[in-house]
Amino acid sequence: MADLEKQVPINTKPIKINDPLPPKRRRNCCRSCLSVLLKIIITVIILAGLPIALFFIIVNPQKMKVTITEATLNQFSLTNNTNFKYNLDLNLAIRNPNRIMGFHYESFNSWLYYGNPMEINYEWSKGNFNQGKKNTTVRELSFKGNQTLALGFYDAVISKFNREKSGEVFSFDVKMEFWVKVKLGKIKIGTFIPRIDCELKVPLSDGRRNATTTTSTFKATKCDVVFRATSIFDRGFENCKSCN
What we know:
- By secondary structure, the chain is of the alpha+beta class.
- The protein contains three helices and ten strands, in the order H-H-E-E-E-E-E-H-E-E-E-E-E.
């Protein structure tokens, strides 16, 4: 019994256990991680955007300017109220306003409309020429042939033709697509398809007018140009059967 009474008493003092980080310290840690991540993202954006910003500042790229400088309507007549005969010659001035950047034209499409949406002609041509900086290139464009009126456009087109025939000045819409690459020195960048829309009022040529008709001359017309990028594999015109 004496030995039992001399046993060492049990230590009842609680054992201290290390607690996880307090909520305040956890919040500070999360904020530090987010701050570092945000700085990394901002740095990446700046590094990626800086070359693009420098390109636009130094090169200052601009789209070409297109003007129809001359238009000669040698023939525009309607036979049997169903068939148009037309012969329209245009001079097209393409201006590159850039002081550093040039253009390489691969090909272009053109359409002639009378009485939207009646398409009366389509022309396709391979361009394949270079245009240097601050340069104006003049191209000729001709539309000649016959077009039978579609039933869906008959009334509207006939009404318009009869209205304009008295003054012998006709309104046409010429639409074009250029397939171009941007040139910086000898380097060609991207493939772009500028879309051009020209609204023209063209008088009949002098030899075709009536003696009583008031003389009218064609006024040079600036065209609207919409620039858009495309995939280098998007070459639909090569599959056009009527383009060959």
